[in-house]
């Protein structure tokens, strides 16, 4: 029986793609890199920069730290991160789950202070018992590491009673590494085929379908 529901942030709870892509373009321009097409930029919404910068944007090792700092200046200090919206139907899903007694956590590879700032700005932080995210020094960075952080903060949570909801293969892979199940959703940046291929137990197109599944399991 599912009792605890961990939510990815970018692409699952919120549409943060416009602000993230703007920050990436500004960063790449500053360092003289070619700006890739929109599809490639959108792949950077979700995974940690330790993966997306070298693999999708081809940022060189010697530029990595300063490039991340440039991005974070725009995204955090200049409040670019607040240019985001809650996906349609998601707040209703959160409200319904809380009213039915489920324990909700945010589980994101975004730095935790930034995640808290965004969720507070959008007014949906009230639905979550805990908000867990990456550390600024990247010692906690991957989805698996953040899931483990969730369990450290709630040691009474049992893995067999916990599910992660996310939109990319990184969410599914992280859940598999820790030993919990992952529900995939298609309103973010991932694809149905990728989510199933990496081991999502189900993939849904709408928040109300997620609610029905959780209530039935």
Automatic annotation (TrEMBL):
Gene3D superfamilies linked: HAD superfamily/HAD-like (3.40.50.1000), Putative phosphatase, domain 2 (1.10.150.240)
InterPro entries hit by this protein: HAD-like_hydrolase_sf (IPR050155), HAD-like_sf (IPR036412), HAD_2 (IPR041492), HAD_sf (IPR023214), PGP-like_dom2 (IPR023198)
Domain of life: Bacteria
An example molecular function term from Gene Ontology annotations: protein tyrosine kinase activity
One annotated Gene Ontology cellular component of this protein: cytosol
Keywords in alphabetical order: Hydrolase
Pfam families referenced in this protein's UniProt entry, alphabetically: HAD_2 (PF13419)
Record flagged with keyword Hydrolase: yes
Residue intervals passing through the bilayer: none
Name by which UniProt lists this protein: HAD hydrolase-like protein
The species this protein was found in: Pseudobutyrivibrio xylanivorans
């Amino acid at each position: 029986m599912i009792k605890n529901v961990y939510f990815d942030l970018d692409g699952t709870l919120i549409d943060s793609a416009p602000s993230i892509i703007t920050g990436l373009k500004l960063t790449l321009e500053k360092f003289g890199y070619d700006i890739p097409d929109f599809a490639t930029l959108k792949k950077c919404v979700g995974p940690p920069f330790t993966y997306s910068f070298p693999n999708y944007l081809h940022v060189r090792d010697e530029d990595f730290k300063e490039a991340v700092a440039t991005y974070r200046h725009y995204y955090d200090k200049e409040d670019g991160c607040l240019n985001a919206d809650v996906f349609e139907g998601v707040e209703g899903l959160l409200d319904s789950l809380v009213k039915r007694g489920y324990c909700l956590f945010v589980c994101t590879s975004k730095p935790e202070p930034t995640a808290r700032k965004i969720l507070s700005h959008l007014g949906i932080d009230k639905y979550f018992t805990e908000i867990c995210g990456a550390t600024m020094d990247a010692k906690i960075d991957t989805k698996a590491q953040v899931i483990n952080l969730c369990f450290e903060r709630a040691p009474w949570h049992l893995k067999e009673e916990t599910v992660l909801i996310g939109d990319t293969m990184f969410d599914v892979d992280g859940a598999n590494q820790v030993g919990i199940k992952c529900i995939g959703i298609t309103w973010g940046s991932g694809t149905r085929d990728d989510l199933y291929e990496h081991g999502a137990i189900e993939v849904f197109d709408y928040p109300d379908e997620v609610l029905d599944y959780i209530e039935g399991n």
